[in-house]
Amino acid sequence: MVCVCKVNCESNIGFLIVVVDLKSMGMTVRRVFVFIILLFCSFQILNAASADYKKALTNSLLYFEGQRSGKLPPNQRVNWRGDSGLKDGQDARINLVGGYYDAGDNLKLGFPLAFTITMLSWSTIEFEDQLSEHKELKNALDAIKWGTDYLIKAHTDPNVFYGEIGDPDSDHSCWQRPEDMTTPRSSYKLDEQHPGSDLAAETAAALAAASIVFKSVDKKYSSTMLLHATQLFDFAKNHPGKYSDSIPPARQIYSSSGYEDEMLWGAAWLYRATNMKKYLDYMGGASDSGGVRTEFSWDDKFVGAHVLAAKFVLDGEADASGIWAQYKTQAEEYVCSCAQKSNQNVQKTPGGLFWFLPWNNNQYVATATFVMSVYSNYLSSKGASLQCSGGDVSPDHLTSLVRSQVDYILGSNPRNMSYMVGYGSNFPQKIHHRGASIVSIKKDPNPVSCKGGFQDWFYKDAPNPNVLVGAVVSPDGNDKYDDSRNDFQLAEPATVTIAPLVGVLAYLA
Ligand SMILES: *[C@@H]1O[C@H](CO)[C@@H](O)[C@H](O)[C@H]1NC(C)=O
User: Is the pTM of this model over 0.70?
Assistant: First the structure.
């Protein structure tokens, strides 16, 4: 007897084809029976109805097109945007056109940008098969390359890196489309006299991780990125300092708390990209393992470094002793705290969302769910589970916790609101975002002035004219969200939030 089963989950119909060889009266007769089975996969259908991760994944990558600076390509899908920042770098007589606007303003900020690119690359490395299956791999590569092309331009000499374009004060005192900017586009750089190990090492991490992504796609591009990454790491190592001391305007917006985390994280990515022992030795020789962390963010990459170190231990590339044992324990303590199985659990809102900090809380939810997804994969590939002080956690349990957090963001929450713009029927209409809140330049090419934008658009009690699909904002600690344009703590989406979600959504889709 032969059995062939074919299931089409989209139409919810299964075919069972049974081929039976019957022996009768000395002859063999082959009969084929076809059964149509209904509701064969009703369980999957129900899940798909609760959240459409595939749609959310598509949205998350569209978001990056909405944040593009520079000359937009012919295949640009977010059509309400136009070319902008075409003279960036002119004050330094170099070309710094391109890259991404950081959040709802028109600044290009190297520190959160590099972290964004590292997380987009990690998302792609870890969940490449899923991205490919959902036809989003090309979009993920494009999203990474839009950032890495810019980072390469900004690295003009081995020990010179341009880390910021624009001034927070003048930028924030205007409300203009990026296409209309009249604000100074000052370029700020690091060099030997103005070091910034955090920014240089994070950029090294971004370019090293992206070089892994592009290895099989574009070998030449991949090795170019790796060369820049190794130079930037050496610059970071040989000229220690905090970038926000060298680029003063960064201090008021993305002030760095230290560079030891970026150095470890940069070394971990360079090890993955090169397999060179010196990077492993750098991690092994660190004087401080960082301790157990309570967040993973643009400022604090210890968790990322710990998780990569734990992978090296699990894969037998590093000894499970000394500082390596500490790294792995600390990675697992963080995951345990997210899984609510440690002595110091991550807090939750009454509605169940992880609660870290009041300003853009979902950026921390995004990195936490990313780490849980990745760790779930690492554990299941070893047939292992996580031993927490509050009990064991299986990889499947981690995955279901990730799903519940993402479901909250996508609408399963006390407000029945999707915190991803363009997803579901009830999503934020007034996000704090200059480009989205002002009529598209394609519809009205008359320039919007610095102050005119406030009068005509910012204070307007109406939905944004442009939908920045894929942007993610945050409710407060009591699951409330007022959808108020001037609430930059809750209503301003940032690239650092969406980059890890690309990986998480690919994982769940
Ligand atoms: C959310 O949806 C549920 C179920 O449909 C409903 O009972 C509840 O009242 C809704 N909450 C809000 C704030 O709309």
Answer: yes
Please, is 317 exposed, middle or buried when counting C-beta atoms within 10 Å of its C-beta (0-12, 13-18, 19+)? middle
Percent of residues, the chain, with pLDDT higher than 90: 90
d(CA 204, CA 228): 7
Active site residues: 432
> Mind listing the pLDDT tens digit for each residue in 6-51?
444 434 444 445 555 555 545 555 565 555 554 444 444 444 446 9
- Determine the distance separating the centroid of ligand 1 and the alpha carbon of 472, expressed in angstroms: 21
Rounded Cα gap, residues 493 and 363, in angstroms? 9
Task: Give residue 347's Cα distance to chain centre.
Answer: 22
Q: Is 33 left (phi over 0), alpha (psi -120 to 50) or beta?
A: beta
pLDDT on residue 259: 98
Q: What pLDDT score does 198 carry?
A: 98
Taking the centre of ligand 1 as the mean of its atom positions, its distance from the CA of residue 412, in whole angstroms, is: 10
Q: Helix or strand or coil: residue 318? A: coil
Ligand 1 atom nearest to 415, measured from its CA:
13
For residues 60 and 436, give the distance between their C-alpha atoms in angstroms, rounded to a whole number.
16
DSSP code string of 129-150: HHHHHTT-HHHHHHHHHHHHHH
Q: Which atom of ligand 1 lies closest to the CA of 416? A: 1
Quick one: angle between helices 322-338 and 277-284, nearest 10? 80
Q: How confident is the model at residue 5 (pLDDT cuts 50, 70, 90)?
A: very low
Q: Are 89 and 165 in contact (CB under 8 A)?
A: yes
Q: Residue 395 class from Cβ within 10 Å (0-12 exposed, 13-18 middle, 19+ buried)?
A: buried
- Count the alpha carbons within 13 Å of 132 in the hemisphere toward its beta carbon: 7
φ, ψ of residue 480 in degrees (nearest 5): -100, 150
| Level-2 CATH architecture, domain 53-423+487-508 | Alpha/alpha barrel (1.50)
Q: Note the pLDDT tens digit of each residue in 126-135.
A: 999 999 999 9
- What are the residue boundaries of the structural domains of the chain, listed by start? 2-49, 53-423+487-508
Q: In sequence order, what E strands does 229-333 have?
A: none
